[in-house]
Amino acid sequence: MKNLQIKHHLTDSVMLAYSAGSLPEAYSLVVACHVSLCAQCRSALEGFDALGGAVLEQSGKSELSAGALAATMDLIANGQEPAQEVSYEKSDFPVPLQKYVGGGPEKVKWRKIGGGVKQAILPTANDANVRLLYIPAGTAVPDHSHGGLEMTLILQGAFSDEIDRFARGDVEFGDEDLTHTPIAEVGIDCICLAATDAPLKFSGLIPRLLQPFIKI
Ligand SMILES: [Zn+2]
Questions:
Q1: Of 4, 17, 48, 114, which residue has the fewest beta carbons closer than 10 angstroms?
Q2: In this structure, are residues 29 and 191 in contact, taking their beta carbons and an 8 Å threshold?
Q3: Please, are residues 157 and 126 in contact by the beta-carbon 8 Å criterion?
Q4: C-alpha 118 to ligand 1 mean position (Å)
């Protein structure tokens, strides 16, 4: 398979927290999914695990190994060289996510949130939440800011915002200082996985008009 050109990775502090088991479930899911797609962060995380002597229980590591083994067996059966990485079809979800959804994108129970954008909030512990977002190609997600830390992993397609371009495998971090308008690229609908520790605040016209008065 063609390796993903991942440009935006996890931070050391996030990997440390994940390795120590102190990251809320919602963020841990995003980390596990990124790590399953990214050899660089996977090896960095192994370093953190060795450092902390922590045991990886919740990560996608063992699942990945199982998946990699199955993929290797398939390739051997087909008389091909085993690939270095687990191959995912465009429509597939990383294994850790499949466990939450019960399969791939076709299993997601989407709810429309306006402008053609759909979301599905996944069941996790209450200290943070994680949702799948479906953004039709060429569509903008309404302006929003974040009450806390938002961690977004792109699973399909790509979007660009005021910060940069983010494609499959990339992670974007946002906080209360970031108000951004991600626009999905033309060509393929964008699907991403976003964890937050507070609800996203969408800043529509009326809230924006009121804001100067509220902030006095
Ligand atoms: Zn990475």
A1: 114
A2: no
A3: no
A4: 26
CA dist., res. 63 & res. 176, Å (int): 34
State the Cα–Cα distance between residues 189 and 98, nearest whole angstrom: 19
For residue range 33-84, list pLDDT tens digits in order.
Answer: 999 999 999 999 998 888 776 444 444 444 445 554 455 445 444 444 333 4
Highest mean pLDDT among 3-12, 25-34, 73-82 belongs to 25-34
Distance 13 CA to ligand 1 centre (A): 13
How far apart are the CA of 6 and the centre of ligand 1, in A? 7
The rounded Å distance from CA 85 to ligand 1 centre is 14
Superfamily of domain 102-207: Jelly Rolls (2.60.120.10)
Tokens at 121, concatenated: 């909030």
Count Cβ atoms within 10 A of the Cβ of residue 16 and give its class: 0-12 exposed, 13-18 middle, 19 or more buried: middle
Nearest to residue 34, comparing CAs of 13, 55, 14? 14
